[in-house]
Specification:
Strand content: 15-25%
CATH superfamily of the largest domain: Alpha/Beta hydrolase fold, catalytic domain
Oligomer: single chain
CATH topology of the largest domain: Rossmann fold
Radius of gyration: 21 Å
Distance between the termini: 68 Å
Mean pLDDT: 91
Helix content: 25-40%
Shape: globular
Length: about 290
């Protein structure tokens, strides 16, 4: 009897410990997803003196600041970029510069709770932020048909949702995208009931099937944060027109060292050329 009681006591203790872990991670999950940096200097500090600080108002009453420069060429669209889960817009300066230098408009959208902006991080909050930036552009006379949505990592979840809500966008660019946050969570926390726990889900795989906007996916096969198979899975179910650029030596944060900007520029320049967006085309880029 004593042995059975010890076994039972051990199992109860294990259950309690596991329940505490689950509850702790459930409560703290957003601190494990979002890593904002609020120490944002002016655009000039990051070599973007030609960009202006702009303010947008969200539907839940927040005023957010982003950086914007209008298109120098009226024939070229504005690229609206939503960055990944860490840092702020300033450290994406090298991603804006190639497009600004070739006449594209560029809006570096900063989220709530990032870069000195007010608010708390959440999936629905980020969607409100994105709508506010899109509507701000419309107020400047830039309609969705003249906007390219560009998402980086976590930002791909924001972009896919906006592409569903605004189907007339000129194009969408997804850099190192994921299928869903649930899938990423299961990969990292395989010992937890992630499907039940996740509040911010960003279900790209379910949503992208309904998008008709021209799509470019960029992903590296050496990505250790969001494995390449996730980006490929998204591409495989996305409707035409679509294109995928694969980077054999590319990781999660270094695709611009492998000509990502050049490939995006070629995609944008070829949007109106039917030969560029051939059916079922997936390009493996050479290094």
């Amino acid at each position: 009897m004593k042995k059975n009681k010890k076994v039972m006591d051990f199992l109860v203790a294990c259950f309690i410990a596991y329940a505490v872990i689950v509850l702790t991670l459930y409560i703290a999950q957003r601190s494990l997803i979002y890593f904002p940096d609020n120490n944002l200097s002016p655009p000039s500090f990051f070599g973007l003196a030609d960009m202006n600080v702009i303010g947008v108002r969200t539907s839940d009453g927040l005023t957010l600041k982003g950086w914007y420069k209008a298109s120098a060429d009226p024939e070229k669209p504005v690229i609206l970029m939503f960055h990944g889960n860490a840092g702020h817009i300033g450290i994406r300066n090298f991603k804006a510069r190639p497009f600004l230098d070739t006449g594209y408009g560029f809006l570096l959208a900063e989220y709530r709770a990032y870069g000195g902006n007010p608010g708390q991080t959440s999936e629905q909050g980020f969607y409100r932020d994105a709508r506010a930036y899109i509507e701000w552009l419309r107020a400047q006379g830039v309609e969705p048909k003249d906007i390219v949505l560009y998402g980086e990592s976590l930002g791909t979840g924001v972009v896919v949702q906006m592409a569903v809500e605004y189907p007339d966008m000129k194009a969408i660019v997804l850099e190192t995208p994921f299928t869903s946050f649930v899938d990423l969570g299961k990969r990292l926390y395989f010992f937890l009931p992630v499907s039940l726990m996740m509040r911010d889900r960003y279900d790209n795989l379910a949503k992208i099937r309904n998008i008709k906007t021209p799509l470019l996916v960029l992903h590296g096969t050496a990505d250790m944060v969001v494995p390449y198979r996730y980006g490929k899975a998204l591409f495989d179910v996305a409707p035409e027109p679509r294109r995928m650029e694969t980077f054999p030596a590319g990781g999660h944060n270094d695709l611009y060292a492998h000509d990502a900007d050049g490939r995006i520029l070629r995609f944008l320049e070829g949007l109106d050329k039917q030969f560029y967006l051939r059916h079922n085309e997936s390009i493996t880029g050479g290094e």
